[in-house]
Design a protein that fits this description.
Layout: E1 6-9, E2 19-27, E3 50-53, E4 59-69, E5 78-84, E6 94-100, E7 103-108, E8 118-127, E9 132-138, E10 145-148, E11 156-164, E12 169-171, E13 186-189, E14 193-194, E15 200-205, E16 209-215, E17 218-221, E18 229-233, E19 240-250, E20 255-264, E21 270-274, E22 290-293
Parallel strand pairs: 14-20
Antiparallel strand pairs: 1-3, 2-4, 4-5, 6-7, 7-10, 8-9, 8-11, 11-12, 13-15, 15-18, 16-17, 16-19, 19-20, 21-22
């Protein structure tokens, strides 16, 4: 869907009594489950039956909610999965124009979209003053060519638009369409020794991009991406040295790569912990903890 917010409502029931509270979570991780802390005001926990999440970025989301009965028993969570696509396809570019008697044939480059597929193209033939002479929907993503026939002699302009599955267009004459040939700058971590077999792979780009990392089965998309910060978790790696290639593509389909090199040593043990004496977390509040290892 094309949206920046999501609204949920629900109602639980219990055959032996009433529902006393709910717990829910919205995550980009399918393995994240709601905790056992009731949501809402302490005086009306049973009425916490709707929630709106705003400012959502593109990605696949997992909403889960569960209910607690008056005896304190939590039920199994109910899950709703959905995808948001707020990003238009990459910009198509006209590659050639061939005139023959009273016809003009145009060809254009492929447009891609990492969130939802490109479903078709639209090509407009316009007079020099900008008024459209003909507009044609090309219901194909593989045949990127079209011939306008019965065209009178004169000067014309053509523009091509690509539309993705949620209906977002990107046009060949958009501002910056011919200006962005610069790939994103990438920095990635870790590049040190880590003590876990499942380290977090992080990357930063200087513009919105979609990032992937290489594996034995091919390129794998980061779990959280399509912004300037990208994060994913590597799992069950063996001890020793590891090297990964991180590749990121911006909205104009310019790509760049960076590398991370790190060593896993699970035999290392923490020697010190420095941080606040008490730790509390709520929504966007994050405490910093420094752990020393031998």
């Amino acid at each position: 869907v094309y949206a920046s917010s999501a609204n949920f409502s629900w109602l639980g029931y219990d055959v032996f009594g009433n529902v006393s509270a709910y717990s829910y979570v919205l995550s980009l991780n399918s393995n994240t489950n709601p905790d056992d802390v009731p949501e809402g005001s302490i005086s009306s926990l049973a009425n916490e039956v709707r929630k709106t999440f705003s400012n959502l970025q593109s990605g696949r989301y997992y909403f889960k909610v569960k209910a607690k009965d008056e005896a304190g028993n939590w039920g199994n969570p109910l899950s709703v999965n959905f995808s948001i696509d707020n990003t238009p396809p990459t910009i198509p570019r006209i590659l050639s124009e061939n005139k023959s008697s009273n016809s003009i044939t145009y060809s254009w480059s492929s447009s891609t979209d990492s969130e939802s597929p490109v479903v078709n193209y639209r090509i407009n033939l316009s007079y020099q003053n900008g008024s459209v002479l003909n507009s044609v929907l090309v219901n194909s993503t593989t045949s990127r060519t079209y011939t306008f026939t019965s065209v009178s002699s004169g000067d014309y302009n053509a523009t091509v638009g690509a539309v993705n599955f949620v209906g977002l267009f990107r046009w060949s004459n958009e501002k910056g369409a011919e200006a962005d040939f610069t790939p994103p700058l990438i920095s990635a971590t870790p590049n040190v020794t880590v003590v876990t077999s499942s380290p977090i792979l992080r990357a930063w780009t200087n513009e919105a991009a979609v990032c992937f990392y290489n594996s034995s089965t091919g390129n794998i998309r980061f779990y959280y991406t399509n912004t300037t910060y990208h994060e994913t978790k590597l799992r069950n790696l063996a001890s020793g040295q590891h090297r990964y290639t991180v590749t990121c593509s911006d909205l104009s389909d310019n790509s760049a790569s960076s590398f991370v090199n790190f060593t896993i040593n699970t035999a290392l043990a923490p020697t010190s912990v420095a941080g606040p004496s008490t730790i509390g977390t709520y929504e966007r509040l994050t405490n910093s903890i420094v752990i020393g290892i031998n």
